[in-house]
Amino acid sequence: KYPNRQLLFMEIKMYQFQQFTQQDIEIVKDETVYRGFFKLNKVQFKHKLFAGGWSGVVTRELLIKGAASAVVAYDPVLDNVVLVEQVRIGAYDPTLKQSPWLLELIAGMVEEGETPESVALRESEEEAGAKITNMQHCLSVWDSPGGVLERIHLFVGKVDSTQVGGLHGLAEENEDIRVHVVNRETAYQWLCEGKIDNGVAVMGLQWLELNYLKLKAQWL
After folding, report:
1. Is the pLDDT assigned to residue 89 strictly greater than 60?
2. What are 123-139's pLDDT values in tens digits?
3. Span 17-41, mean pLDDT?
4. Backbone angles phi, psi at 217, to 5 degrees
């Protein structure tokens, strides 16, 4: 079809990728059906179609969690990363061999009046007793947007891993958190083996693997 390479490149150049916008969804009805630690809404909406026109009314249950911050706490001197371990009810299934105590990044929910940056610093202190410096934003992503409203903000920060460890967490929130200082290569190997299998930690450790040399050049 493309005997002429120049013709191929001209056709690619002519094609411009365009996406629908927030204004291309029409909310028909949005009601809260449950309010607890999180909120569950039943949403009915219509949206524009790729082929033109509008869809019928789509009904979805939407778990509203808000925003969360996660921190890749990295020690460029010793090439270590700080992980936290705690029980997660979503990983509980007595038919599985895997433990519901997960190895995770430091993370926490962004409450009203807080910024993602301030939460990243606060949770580092509360969950790991870690003092983070040189913190920078890595990326922000939607977590399972087919049925969950949650925006996750990933940060990386410099830490002295010799100064962290032990048990942490807020008693009033029934937090029971164990801190692990793990060599970066070991943490990435655990990811590859499936020992680390939660989305935020996988995303953060993959980001670190792609960027740790740049961080060392900046921080050392």
Report:
1. yes
2. 999 999 999 999 999 99
3. 95
4. -65, -35
- How far is residue 72's CA from residue 50's CA, in Å, rounded to a whole number? 39
Give the pLDDT of residue 152.
97
For residue 18, what pLDDT is reported?
84
b/e code 111-124 from CB counts within 10 Å (16+ = b): eeeeebeebbbebb
Are 63 and 40 a contacting pair, CB within 8 Å? yes
Is residue 88 within 8 A of residue 165, CB to CB? The reply is no
Q: Give the CA-trace dihedral at 131, 134, 139, 143, to 10 degrees.
A: 0
CA angle 45, 46, 49 (to 5 degrees): 150
**Catalytically active residues, by annotation:** 173
Residue 14 gets which letter from DSSP?
A: H
Contact predicate 69/116, CB 8 Å:
yes
- Rounded CA-CA distance 191/103 in Å is 10
pLDDT tier, 173 (very low <50, low <70, confident <90, very high otherwise): confident
- Indicate the Cα dihedral angle 212, 83, 115, 24, nearest 10°: 80
